[in-house]
Amino acid sequence: MARLADYFVLVAFGPHPRGSGEGQGQILQRFPEKDWEDNPFPQGIELFCQPSGWQLCPERNPPTFFVAVLTDINSERHYCACLTFWEPAEPTQEAVCPENATEREEEADEGGQARLSPTAPAPPSQLFAPKTLVLVSRLDHTEVFRNSLGLIYAIHVEGLNVCLENVIGNLLTCTVPLAGGSQRTISLGAGDRQVIQTPLADSLPVSRCSVALLFRQLGITNVLSLFCAALTEHKVLFLSRSYQRLADACRGLLALLFPLRYSFTYVPILPAQLLEVLSTPTPFIIGVNAAFQAETQELLDVIIADLDGGTVTVPECVHIPPLPEPLQSQTHSVLSMVLDPELELADLAFPPATSSTSSLKMQDKELRAVFLRLFAQLLQGYRWCLHIVRIHPEPVIRFHKAAFLGQRGLVEDDFLMKVLEGMAFAGFVSERGVPYRPTDLFDELVAHEVARIRADENHPQRILRHVQELAEQLYKNENPYPAVAMHKVQRPGEASHLRRAPRPFPRLDEGTVQWIVDQAAAKMQGAPPAVKAERKTTVPSGPPMTAILERCSGPHVNSARRLEVVRNCISYVFEGKMLEAKKLLPAVLRALKGRAARCCLAQELHLHVQQNRAVLDHQQFDFVVRMMNCCLQDCTSLDEHGIAAALLPLVTAFCRKLSPGVTQFAYSCVQEHVVWSTPQFWEAMFYGDVQTHIRALYLETSEDLGSPSQEVGEVQSQEDERSALDVASEQRRLWPTLSREKQQELVQKEESTVFSQAIHYANRMSYLLLPLDSSKSRLLRERAGLGDLESASNSLVTNSMAGSMAESYDTESGFEDAETCDVAGAVVRFINRFVDKVCTESGVTSDHLKGLHVMVPDIVQMHIETLEAVHRESKRLPPIQKPKLLRPRLLPGEECVLDGLRVYLLPDGREEGAGGSGGGPALLPAEGAVFLTTYRVIFTGMPTDPLVGEQVVVRSFPVAALTKEKRLSVQTPVDQLLQDGLQLRSCTFQLLKMAFDEEVGSDSAELFRKQLHKLRYPPDIRGTFALTLGSTHTPGRPSRAAKDKGPSLRTLSRNLVKNAKKTIGRQYVTRKKYNPPSWEHRGQPPPEDQEDEISVSEELEPSTLTPSSALKPSDRMTMSSLVERACCRDYQRLGLGTLSNSLSRAKSEPFRISPVNRMYAICRSYPGLLIVPQSIQDNALQRVSRCYRQNRFPVVCWRSGRSKAVLLRSGGLHGKGVVGLFKAQNAPSPGQSQADSSSLEQEKYLQAVVSSMPRYADSSGRNTLSGFSSAHMSSHVPSPRARVTTLSNPMAASASRRIAPRGKWGSVRASGRSSGLGTDVGSRLAGRDVLSPPQANGAPPDPGFLRPHRAALYIIGDKAQLKGVRPDPLQQWELVPIEVFEVRQVKASFKKLLKACVPGCPAAEPSSASFLRSLEESEWLTQIHKLLQISVLVVELLDSGSSVLVSLEDGWDITTQVVSLVQLLSDPFYRTLEGFRLLVEKEWLSFGHRFSHRGAHTLTGQSSGFTPVFLQFLDCVYQVHLQFPMEFEFSQFYLKFLGYHHASRRFRTFLLDSDYERIELGLLYEEKGERRGQLACRSVWEYVDRLSKRTPVFYNYTYAPEDTEVLRPYSNVSNLKVWDFYTEETLAEGPPYDWELAQGPPEPPEEERPDGGAPQSRRRVVWPCYDSRPRVQPDAISRLLEELQRLETELGRPPERWKDTWDRVKAAQRLEGRPDGHGTTSSLLVSSVPHHRRSLGVYLQEGPVGSTLSLSLDSDQSSGSTTSSSRQAARRSTSTLYSQFQTAESENRSYEGTLYKKGAFMKPWKARWFVLDKTKHQLRYYDHRVDTECKGVIDLAEVEAVAPGTPTMGAPKTVDEKAFFDVKTTRRVYNFCAQDVPSAQQWVDRIQSCLSDA
């Protein structure tokens, strides 16, 4: 029984102590005056009586009633029922606040919120003060409170003759039963009667109608989100103008949360004075009057539910996790069925007449029933995850959260995760986890109804029926007695509050009330306590849990077959069948991604442990550890599937003997998993084990008491079935009956069980946390959690409990000190925290706990000592099953710097190697070693997947090409251990992503990095491979003498002279006859004793270029050596002057070679000899050069043979110079500064260039500047602006194509040849179609001065540099400002290109689209497009007769690219092998492209990084090569070769930044002359020459140039292709550009079968990305040339060089084409292809013998058309290849005649002349008898049978059908028909005899 009311309080309005406007509540009286012992008087009641504040009112308001809820410190709720009425204010009250009144009036004037009633304005003097009657109770009987307080008010207002003291006394002494469904009638002694019903079950909340009202106000979706918010501990705030509504809404929300209890702040009505509570950090459910809505605006993380408006506002920063599907949608639909039953019937054609809607109270219960079902579904099977840790003296229960989530399949579900971690669920476990207690509706539902709920899922009507059944029970619980006698309570009359009350509420007599209370208390003491016996039972556990939604986890759904594979593999391991196991292992590792397979593995291994097979040999141990690691790697830190838990006992069981007395257990090899450092995992494991032991403890005792022996078996089986909870429940039932001693004994036993488990776990944890090698402490620190162990634990403990850990005996603070990295200390702290936590929770005595703290460090120390021995011994183990390291092949002179470090090569983003979508085997990951040599980084190894086979995988790149190195932490593919890794990226488009094997120490890995860095960035250029190769100078030693940076001219000239002496006159070299080695020896370098193939004769020949005597002797030497340079040879070819006539100043030539820079004094980055206009003196050049960046003044580098226009190059302009000149409008003043003079020189220089062009040189001297200006002035035309054309308009291309579709830019060159005037360049570039040709500079035509309509010289400069330029209109040059990209953009773009082509890790969605997207983002192709576009523009200008000066940036990057491309497009010579070499030597090497700087060759260049300017140029050449394949003598492989080696530093060619630097280092001339025996090539050109002699790899067979062809490639990005140099890879041998290494062993020749049949087919599977396709599958011509060489060698003749053979075949082809005009057209050399685009033509035709190999190129078919002598010669060279010719000799024609032959499918019969040839063993056919060209061949070796045939459609009609016969070959059946039967018979016999002879 409990008191109905604890206190009755009267609260009235009182003045505010600080005299502020508002009043405050004052307690006038309270009864009883002294506090009850069991229930102190709650503080702050006066605030809650008037939540909006105490204020006087100008009128009488009707009385109000609401119930506020206060929560005390013990989280007990007190219900304060408040009835407020208004009385006239006493004068004292009014006087207190006059200012208040005036304020109110002012507010009213302003339209404020003064509470004035518009209807009955009271006199201003009269105010009313509120007074409140408050009833405080711990019971929630709202209606009874309303009636009781109403009665007291009625007695007062109506003046009834009843003593108020008696009524209040009775109220305070009234007692009611707590629960159990009893009913009690009470009377307060005023003729009233009330019936109180108590609910049946105390645990079920009483909701009346509050839930239904909440749904009506807010709707389904809003209430659901509030429900989720409250469960996941968010802050919820209700707003309403009604206090009662607020109280109801809060009560309804709490009722929905059942069976969980809300344990945070709960204030249904919050007073205004306490609004700051809303900014508390903890979750809450609070109600606030809507008047204070403004104050709630700034709350950022509060969910606000407005009950009056029906909205719920969720702030942006708050995420409410929804219910897991399908529960969310199911709950939603059931709720709508309950709330809106009409919805189901709305669409019916004949709706039922009436549908019964439930009453509000019933609907309320139905809604609660829906949520009760929801909880039953969510928490179904929760009892199976309870761990009972202690039974006596009080049960201690923990919930295994991870297992619950894992088995429900909701690990990723945010909602359930948060609910289980919440306080409410912690309370649920401690309250409902108890195994022996009274049960309620929820226990029944979750245990017995789950199956029904699942079955009903898809049947709405059945669900509704179930909901109604549950609702009935809930309703019955609240209203156990339906027929209740009516209440009888006196109520005040209508509008009684408006009548003038006779008097204020009286002061009551405390004595009377107290006396009544005391009387009742005395009576109660005498009476026996009415204790209602609680019915306790064992709580049912229900069926084991199932997943909410059966989720199939994609590809890892485990089929029985997979589990079978796992089982087989394990049994093979334990039976010692290691090979079988090895085959299955990859499949097992794949299967272990699935959960079932992992469980299966744990079970199987457990069985083997039980069978005592835990001691393994090394190989078995290895397999078991690998499989365990694979299992554990997918476990999360929570281990929700219990895999780690199942493996924990196994890792401490499996072991191997290392040596006598030293055993290694499996745990030392599986430590690298995050689960071991997760405290929650250990706690769950610990509690699980404790539960098992405690269960066993009680089962044993019951067994001892057990029945006679014969029944033991049955008892035992029953015992096994009882769960720990059942055992606990039984024990709790017996507990009260046990004696005190027995109870003590059980408590002690349990405590010692827990204690012993704690020791056991301290050991286990030290096993798994202490690494084998204690030096690897970093692993521990990196692993999650060891430093941060106060994270939420798995077992549910409230914060208050966790606080008890503070009393732990571990004196250390909870945080690790930053500096302590000792493993032992960290592990001891980890274990101590764990021990503290679990022992405090499991009630271990403090003495025991102290003992544990002493033990833990000893345990750890002991274990460390054991491990040291194990570690020592394991190091001595012979490493098992590690493949032998494959040593890479090295180049001559290449040395190993670091021997193989064992690594795994991991797959990167390119999926071909890993067997991705392209199919093919998974070559990666591969296991092997990485080698570092002086030249390369090389990985060699084998695939780890044994099913791929024994393929050697090689991946390498030159050290010099390294662009980025990144450290990684990666899992090794085999053991799944976390290891250090390294990712190396190179500019040769290669990526090595490696994980070091565990045997490689971190110091070795570090050493590798350091050495790599040292080799990549040597401090001095002499340290590079090309320079150290074969010389005594080693990279370690400092260079010969530390030189000062700028050597004097004298030392330089001394060097020049010294080098020149060596090389003078060696220009002509006699050569020995060179015999290339036979085909087999090709791959290896020539034997040591064999002399270098290119030998140099010693005698000097008189030099043809005799320097004139004008030079000093030392200079003379220099000159002759300079003459040999590439530039000079090329200048002579172009007719730009020779040195001798330049020196003798012959004036006939417009240009001369000037030796002004021979000492590199004017410009260090230019070559020694330069082409300048004839008229310019050498001394003027010094001044001109000052106007240009880096002193790179304009010099001529090429002249067009036809238009005689010249191409010049220079650096960009300095600010002063042409630009400055153009900007100065007026003429220069007489007193010129030096700068002006140099500008003038520069202008003269450009003028001289213009004059030196034949078209513009004018005999009258008109072309000088003065001539121009006078002419201009006489024409009286105001000078308009000169043209400044820009190249930035993308429309240019299309517009010009409209004008003249022939070329890229429209046919500018037409104007060079015909009289028609071309359109102006500027306007064309700007995309305007100019129909009438304007004047050159836009000026009107002037009859007196006829100027050519094209500028003589175009200067292409950077737009930024030429800004604001106003060139004088009379100059004959025109500026073309263009926008070009900068070098840093090239670098950035290249980085992105690298990542696109060789991504570091697989893309999220691998598709070609992602590659193309990243390719586009790199903007590489856009830059190529820009270069080609500019180059084509320049080509057009040159072709039309204008000269062009390219003057961009510093003149050595983009300028070089453009100038080289222009020459390549314009001059066919540069498209030959020799010409291309010359072009690169001249434009790139001599003109000082900074190869070392751009390639970051030394330490100084490290910061600037690699910038691929030269590679970009090669890419442009490749694009042109693609579009014009017949114009280039070299193959695309040649371009790739140069692209690879310009970055590899293997050759000296591409080192250093200019000729000057090369001379200074003594490199320039040594490579020309001196004899070096068997030294490796130092120049890339020398290497190419040597290689070209042996193999046609650099040669393009389709080369058939047109002599005058100027190429104009398309440059739009859509026309460009990604160069395969960037994407291709050959894993079989590494990059194919080091030819000596790339050629594998020669293939064995075809063996004839012993039985004389055809040779066996030598088929090979060619794998993409593994084999080099060009090598495995060569083109037909290479194949034939190989064949020729082989046959010549077999005949013992010295094989001819391939080039000679090829040239002769081509010559024969050409000869044959001429005499008979209708003869065969030469196939690849066809000249009739239209010149515009010959990129698509490679015409092959049927060869003379019909063989697939023979291209017409290779066959000398023209027996008739060539002279017999040439035919004889050709025969000699190819004497053994029948198919090369065709002869008319009779001995080869065994039998001939006419036969009809049926063509192939659907073709007619035709008569053909057939020749049977016994010698060649073939049947040939011709068109007619005298025809010399064979139309086809049937090889008799392929004939299987000759049989009589039948006539088919279209056969000759007149012939007898017996004349038909068929020849069946392996390929097809040939149908023949002879003229008559005898000749048919004759043919058949002949063919048969041929076959039998063979």
Give me the secondary-structure topology.
Blueprint: E1 2-3, E2 7-14, E3 24-31, H1 45-49, E4 64-71, E5 77-88, H2 91-96, H3 98-109, E6 128-137, H4 142-158, H5 164-173, E7 175-176, E8 183-186, E9 194-197, H6 210-218, H7 220-231, E10 235-240, H8 243-257, E11 265-267, E12 284-289, E13 302-306, E14 311-313, H9 327-339, H10 342-345, H11 360-378, E15 386-390, E16 396-399, H12 401-408, H13 414-421, H14 423-432, E17 436-437, H15 441-448, H16 450-456, H17 460-478, H18 510-526, E18 537-538, H19 560-575, H20 578-591, H21 595-610, E19 615-616, H22 618-633, H23 643-651, E20 655-659, E21 662-665, H24 679-704, H25 712-721, H26 724-734, H27 740-769, H28 777-782, H29 799-803, H30 823-841, H31 846-876, E22 896-905, E23 926-933, E24 936-943, E25 953-958, E26 962-971, E27 978-986, E28 990-996, H32 1002-1016, H33 1025-1028, H34 1049-1063, H35 1113-1123, H36 1126-1134, H37 1139-1143, E29 1151-1154, E30 1170-1173, H38 1178-1185, E31 1195-1199, E32 1206-1210, H39 1218-1223, H40 1234-1251, H41 1265-1274, H42 1291-1299, H43 1310-1313, H44 1321-1325, E33 1353-1358, E34 1373-1378, H45 1383-1397, H46 1408-1418, ...
